Amino acid sequence: MGAELGKWLMDVAKYIFTAVLLSAAFGDLTRPVVLTVAILSVFITLLVGLILVENKKEK
Fold first, then answer.
1. Domain-by-domain residue ranges, the chain?
2. pLDDT, tens digit, for every residue of 11-27?
């Protein structure tokens, strides 16, 4: 179950990253706080997802 959650979190990180790139391309990111929160959420979800997937492979 942990590996599936890890894969799901990695997918969420990809979706957030894509949304940030599209928003930046169309000029909707005018406040740096929004960009910072989005980047932090990408790193946190990706890190947790990778940890969960790696823990499953070790067992």
1. 2-58
2. 999 999 999 888 888 87
